[in-house]
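Final report, closing paragraph on structural work. Over the funding period we assembled a curated collection of sequence-structure pairs, and we close with a single example.
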Amino acid sequence: MTSTSEVTGAGAAASAPAAAWRRAILRSPTLEREVALVLALAVTILIFANASPHFLTAGNAVQILRVSVDLAVISAGMTLLIIMGGIDVGVGGILAVSAIFIGRAYQIDLPVPLVVLIGLSAGALLGAVNGLLCARLRIPPIIATLGTMYIWLAVLFLVIGGQWIAGLPRTLGPLVNGSVFGVPAPLVVVAVVYGGCAILLYGLPFGRHIYAIGCNETAARLAGIDVVRVKVTTYALLGGLAGFAALLYVTRLRNVEINIGTNLALEAIAATILGGASIRGGVGSLLGTLLGVFFIKVIQNGLVLAGVSSLWERVIIGSVLLLVLVVEAVRARRGRSRGAPG
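Its predicted structure, as stored:
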C-alpha cells in the first residue's frame, strides 16, 4: 500500500522540473522586454486594424509570415552572434552573393539538392571569412563586416552587371507558399530554425560557450574555451542561415535584383536588440528576437495598407530602437552607481 508521504514525495519530484522552468523564466533578463514587445505588438495590431479593413484578415496574416521568414532566419543567427559579443552589419551582402550562386545554379539546371547545398555553403564560407577576420586578426567586428559587405556587393554588381537575374523556377515554392497539415510553411520553417538554434544555445556546451564569451572573453579563454573556434563557427552559422534566407528569398520572388539585402542587416540587428539582446553581449533571447521580427514586419505591412509613406517605417523603428538603447544605457549606469563603493 502506498503511503501518503510516498505520494507527496513523488508529486514533489514530478513538479520539480516545472518549478525549475518557472524559476528560469521569471529570472530571465529579457522577460521584461518580451512582455513589453507583446504589448507593443498588440497595440500596433489594433491601430492598423482600425486604419485598414484589410489588415486583420487571415490572408494578410499569412502574407506577413511569408515576408517575415527571411528576416526571422537571419535574426536567429544574429541573436547568437550578438550574445557572443559580435555583430555582422554586412550579412545582407552574404545573402546577396548566396542568391547569385543560387540563381546561377538554377540557370544551368543543377539538381535542386545541389542548389540548396551551394546556397548554404556559399553563405557559411563567407560568414567564416568574417569570423576569421574578427577572431584571428582581431579586427573589430563592425569594421570587418562592413568592409567585407562592400566587397560582396561589388562582387554582386560585377557578376550580374547591373541586370537582374529573373525568371527563376518555382521548384522550392512550397517552402514559402505551401502548408504542412494546414500550417503555413513559413511558420514551420521558422519553428525548425528557432528550435535548432534553441537546442544549440540552451542545450549544448557550445551555447554556454557563446554566453561565456559574451560575458567575459578573457575569462572564457582562461577557462579553456577555444574562443577562436567558437567565434568562427558562430559567424559561419550566421552565414549559413543567410544562405538559407537567400534560398527562401529567391524562391519567393524568383529573381535576384541589384539591391537585394540592402536593409536586412540593420533590420536583423534591430529585431535582436528590440527582443532584449544587449549590444555588449552576454544577454539575448530567441523568443524576444522573434517578437522583434514580427513587430518590424507588422509595422511595415500596416503602413503599406494604411497608405503611409515607407519613410515613416524607418522613423518608427529607429525611434523605438533608440528608446530601447537609451533605457538600457540608463539602467546600466544606475546599476554601476549602485554597485560603486560608498
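Residues 4-14, 19-26 have pLDDT under 50 and may be disordered. Residues 31-324 form a domain with the ABC transporter involved in vitamin B12 uptake, BtuC fold (CATH 1.10.3470). We thank the funder for supporting this effort.
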